């Protein structure tokens, strides 16, 4: 009897979970569905069965060079992630392993910069970029994305590093490891899972960043976010083309997220389950 | 060799002084136990010797060499931590081999040493496992294995058994003592458990609030405690203290008498009292007696002493076993 009840509960919860997941995922699904419609179909109202035409994709590719935007997205997200890690690993490291009285304040200050709306600094940053010739440059945008995500990267790494028990490092020191040996043989292997999931998350954040990437680029450095935006302006709205562009833009990151989900989940729940 | 001398060692964390100034000599090959209540500075003292903390003032010598400012690795000591502090990403084999790798020993020699250590510690079948796949006792042995392969001049243990259950603690205690007999290397062992201290030590150092209360062999401390603190800390169950009027016949403000040195009778004796709770351990029975004019006292009775709650009994201290203390709590001899 108890068994039957619990089976029924499992079924109910499974169905509920699927429904909720579908609701959350539906906008993305509908984007993909719409991308396989013709423009007339797309405009006709709600319909989840597309005709399956790929004319929107052909149009999108003919109109602008997807590959160039894609390359920019890769360069910007990887570049800014590497740069952020380069700064964040030592920063988080020193705060986690030799904290001072001000460490907590510094961390809060870093986080507080994320609380400000980006638009509040749009004008000064735009002017700075213009005056230093950084508008529409990959270098300028890489730096910008690094700065935006740095607080989150440092926070994540800091929490991971804090999880590494100090006694293990002391044991390594007693065992005769030099600072270098300690870093290479003990700390790095223990920190790698945390660094890897921070890296993945930051790539996703940088890939999806749309506020600055759209405003600080025109053609040369424009990533896929700008690619999507370019289909919503000039000659009115073209839902099917816009959807095709969006699908093309999110596909790479969805695929990456799919393959690394184990690592991502493990990283995000690091410490919670051990 | 492993003779360690502490000279006026002082340690403060910011404004808080944890160790006010300790002088101590640890002879080569001794098994020394630092014992004291939690928070008294035992770990800090051990970490100062290890070099994991810097002394605020004073000096530390190992085998005649001043190591006060030296890095932990250069002191030639090995440490076993309370949390074991094994490297979670390495196999048992690599955990044990780690200090040897750091010393750049050649692989053949490393393999031989690891194999030997694993055999001594019953870890041969577990060499390829990760620490996470071992039981508490096995992890403890890996930590010890990692310490012994280095052939250090002294071993430092910081409450190594406190994460184990009672039965395993008993076994590991014997294993560590046995190891000391085989290796004859200096061992410094920190614990808050006076039973561990009494059973393992050649020499016990009783610490209280960062100060050494007394140094001596287990029986020295048991028979001749220097002060009330040591008298109360060493021995189980605790020594009974008799104050004021009742202590007058011995001409001291406080006298102490251990539960095992009180004679119990149903007819007559020095102090009269009512039996409260009786704890039956089989071999012994400990009676908690509310003695007139004194308060609660613990008495050891034979395993089958026939009393029940509320009976009247008489207690008589063995004359030669009375400890007398002055106003400051120091022993009068
Ligand atoms: N890193 C530290 N910073 C500040 N105070 C400390 C530090 N380490 C230990 N203490 C303090 O020193 C005292 C002794 O600690 P410890 O040596 O760990 O005691 P025990 O090992 O005897 O339990 C405690 O009061 C503790 O709070
Ligand atoms: Mg301690």
UniProtKB/TrEMBL annotation, chain A:
Transmembrane regions listed in the UniProt entry: 12-33, 74-94, 106-127, 139-161, 182-207, 238-259
Organism for this UniProt entry: Shinella lacus
Domain of life: Bacteria
Pfam family, one: BPD_transp_1
Cell compartments where the protein resides: Cell membrane
Residue ranges constituting the ABC transmembrane type-1 domain according to the UniProt record: 70-260
Broad class of where this protein is predominantly found: membrane
Protein name: Carbohydrate ABC transporter permease
InterPro entries: BP-dep_ABC_trans_perm, MetI-like, MetI-like_sf
Lineage: Bacteria, Pseudomonadati, Pseudomonadota, Alphaproteobacteria, Hyphomicrobiales
Membrane topology: Multi-pass membrane protein
Gene3D superfamilies listed in its UniProt record: MetI-like
Recorded family membership: Belongs to the binding-protein-dependent transport system permease family.
Keywords: Cell membrane, Membrane, Transmembrane, Transmembrane helix, Transport
PROSITE patterns from the UniProt entry: ABC_TM1 (PS50928)
TrEMBL record, chain B:
Subcellular location(s) per record: Cell inner membrane
InterPro entries to which the protein is assigned, alphabetical: AAA+_ATPase, ABC_transporter-like_ATP-bd, ABC_transporter-like_CS, ABC_transpr_MalK-like, ABC_transpr_MalK/UgpC-like, Mo/tungstate-bd_C_term_dom, NA-bd_OB-fold, P-loop_NTPase
Boundaries of every ABC transporter domain copy: 4-234
One Pfam family hit: TOBE_2
Origin superkingdom: Bacteria
Record bears the keyword Protein biosynthesis: no
PROSITE patterns noted in UniProt: ABC_TRANSPORTER_1 (PS00211), ABC_TRANSPORTER_2 (PS50893)
Protein transport recorded as keyword: no
Gene3D superfamilies associated with the record: 2.40.50.100, Nucleic acid-binding proteins, P-loop containing nucleotide triphosphate hydrolases
Topology within the bilayer: Peripheral membrane protein
Gene Ontology MF, one: ATP binding
Keyword list, A-Z: ATP-binding, Nucleotide-binding, Transport
PANTHER family assigned: MALTODEXTRIN IMPORT ATP-BINDING PROTEIN MSMX, MALTOSE_MALTODEXTRIN IMPORT ATP-BINDING PROTEIN MALK
NCBIfam families recorded: PRK11650.1 (NF008653)
Family per record: Belongs to the ABC transporter superfamily.
UniProt-recorded name of the protein: ABC transporter ATP-binding protein
The organism of origin for this protein: Shinella lacus
């Amino acid at each position: 009897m108890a068994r039957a009840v619990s089976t029924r509960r499992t079924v109910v919860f499974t169905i509920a979970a699927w429904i909720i997941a579908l609701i959350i995922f539906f906008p993305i699904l509908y984007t993909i569905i719409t991308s396989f419609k013709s423009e007339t179909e797309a405009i006709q109202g709600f319909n989840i069965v597309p005709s399956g035409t790929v004319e929107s994709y052909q149009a999108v590719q003919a109109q602008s060079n997807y590959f160039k935007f894609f390359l920019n997205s890769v360069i910007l997200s990887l570049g800014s992630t590497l740069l952020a890690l380069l700064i964040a690993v030592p920063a988080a490291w020193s705060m986690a392993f030799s904290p001072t009285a001000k460490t907590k304040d510094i961390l809060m200050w870093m986080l507080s910069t994320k609380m400000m709306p980006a638009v509040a600094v749009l004008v000064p940053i735009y002017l700075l970029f213009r005056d230093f010739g950084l508008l529409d440059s990959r270098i300028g945008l890489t730096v910008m994305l690094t700065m935006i995500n740095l607080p989150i990267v440092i926070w994540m790494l800091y929490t991971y590093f804090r999880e590494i028990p100090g006694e293990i490092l002391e044991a390594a020191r007693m065992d005769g490891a030099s600072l270098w040996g300690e870093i290479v043989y003990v700390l790095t292997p223990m920190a790698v899972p945390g660094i890897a999931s921070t890296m993945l998350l930051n790539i996703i954040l940088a890939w999806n960043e749309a506020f600055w990437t759209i405003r600080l680029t025109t053609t040369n450095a424009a990533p896929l976010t700008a690619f999507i935006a370019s289909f919503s302006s000039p000659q009115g709205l073209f839902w099917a083309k816009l959807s095709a562009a969006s699908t093309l833009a999110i596909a790479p990151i969805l695929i990456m997220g799919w393959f690394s989900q184990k690592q991502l989940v493990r990283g995000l729940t690091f410490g919670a389950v051990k | 060799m492993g003779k360690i001398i502490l000279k006026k060692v002082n340690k403060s964390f910011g404004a808080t002084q944890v160790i006010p100034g300790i002088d101590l000599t640890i002879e080569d090959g001794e098994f020394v136990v630092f014992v004291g209540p939690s928070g008294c500075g035992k770990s800090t003292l051990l970490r100062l010797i290890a070099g994991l903390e810097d002394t605020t003032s004073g000096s530390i010598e190992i085998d005649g060499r001043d190591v006060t400012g030296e890095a932990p690795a250069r002191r030639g000591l090995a440490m076993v931590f309370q949390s074991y502090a094994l490297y979670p990403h390495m196999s048992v084999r690599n955990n044990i081999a780690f200090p040897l790798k750091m010393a750049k020993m050649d692989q053949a020699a490393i393999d031989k040493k690891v194999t030997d250590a694993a055999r001594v510690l019953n870890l041969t079948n577990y060499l390829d496992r990760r620490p996470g796949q071992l039981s508490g006792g096995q992890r403890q042995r890996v930590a010890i294995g990692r310490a012994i392969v280095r052939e250090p001049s002294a071993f430092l243990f910081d409450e190594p058994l406190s994460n184990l259950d009672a039965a395993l603690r008993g076994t590991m205690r014997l294993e560590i003592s046995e190891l000391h007999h085989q290796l004859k290397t200096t061992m410094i062992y920190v614990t808050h458990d006076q039973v561990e201290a009494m059973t393992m030590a050649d020499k016990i150092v009783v610490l209280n609030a960062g100060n050494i209360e007394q140094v001596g062999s287990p029986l020295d401390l048991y028979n001749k405690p220097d002060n009330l603190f040591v008298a109360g800390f060493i021995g189980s169950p605790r020594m009974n203290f008799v104050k004021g009027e009742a202590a007058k016949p011995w001409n001291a403000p406080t006298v102490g008498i251990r539960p095992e040195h009180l004679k119990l009778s149903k007819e007559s004796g020095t102090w009269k009292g009512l039996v409260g709770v009786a704890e039956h351990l089989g071999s012994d029975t400990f009676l908690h007696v509310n003695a007139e004019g004194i308060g609660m006292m613990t008495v050891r009775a034979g395993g089958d002493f026939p009393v029940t709650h509320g009976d009247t009994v008489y207690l008589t201290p063995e004359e030669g076993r009375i400890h007398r203390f002055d106003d400051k709590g120091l022993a009068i001899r």
